[in-house]
Write a structure and sequence with these properties.
Length: 230
């Protein structure tokens, strides 16, 4: 798949034709770079004025804890962008971005993107970026709501109730595998599996891989609140 096809399927360039994308890339004077597995793309403490969009490979977004341990916050696949919030705000990056395997990235200067022209295509591009930033803000707000719960059981039920509310059904799929859900909830995978097993045994829910069904209006699940629905 060539570069334009990848970008055309990316949320940032949604609604734009291949020709419009090519013209915008030329106006923004984007830079393409290849990173080898383990190479750092962005260090915590940097103040980026560019954000990246993954063209091929995969990136890991990492945070180093005070104790020295490393937490995987997220990963980025082809078509996904990263570091856009730091570039937009001109703020210090709180995370390190690393190539999980050989990866190709397109770097876009944020201010140049905002001023790349006054045409319809550029307006669509900016609107797409604002929507991406808004959705990520809601995602983070929801995560804070879940992580603020006292126990892992409450965190799990808050998250699942939020997904049920968002999808309008007690039966739904989540966008994480078991390790991904553990990382999202800042929990140990074995501890998460134990909680899920207990909830299933109690008749609160059933699940198979990433498909869940809430069977009862559990007290903790019922308290998911607006943050859980973000």
């Amino acid at each position: 798949m060539n570069q334009i096809k990848i970008l055309a399927s990316a949320p940032l360039f949604s609604g734009l034709t291949g020709m419009e994308i090519q013209e915008l890339l030329e106006k923004m004077r984007v830079m393409k770079k290849i990173y080898r597995k383990g190479e750092v793309l962005l260090c915590a403490g940097d103040i980026p004025d560019e954000f990246g969009i993954v063209l091929s490979g995969c990136i890991h977004i990492l945070r180093e804890e005070f104790s020295g341990s490393i937490t995987l916050l997220a990963q980025g696949m082809p078509g996904e962008i990263f570091a856009e919030a730091f570039a937009a705000a001109g703020e210090t990056s709180l995370v390190t971005v690393e190539a999980a395997r050989d990866t190709e990235v397109l770097w876009i200067h944020f201010e140049r993107m905002m001023r790349s022209g006054a045409g319809k295509a550029q307006q669509t591009l900016v609107e797409n970026m604002m929507q991406i930033l808004a959705k990520k803000n809601l995602f983070l707000a929801g995560r804070v709501s879940h992580l603020s719960r006292r126990t892992l059981r409450e965190k799990v039920l808050s998250y699942l109730a939020g997904q049920a509310a968002r999808q309008g059904s007690r039966s739904f799929e989540i966008p994480f595998d078991r390790q991904g859900l553990a990382d999202y909830l800042a929990a140990d995978r074995s501890a998460l599996s134990a909680v899920l097993g207990k909830l299933k045994k109690e008749g609160v829910l059933t699940f198979r891989k990433n498909h869940f069904t809430l069977l009862t209006e559990d007290e903790e699940a019922g308290k998911a609140g607006e943050g859980g629905r973000a």
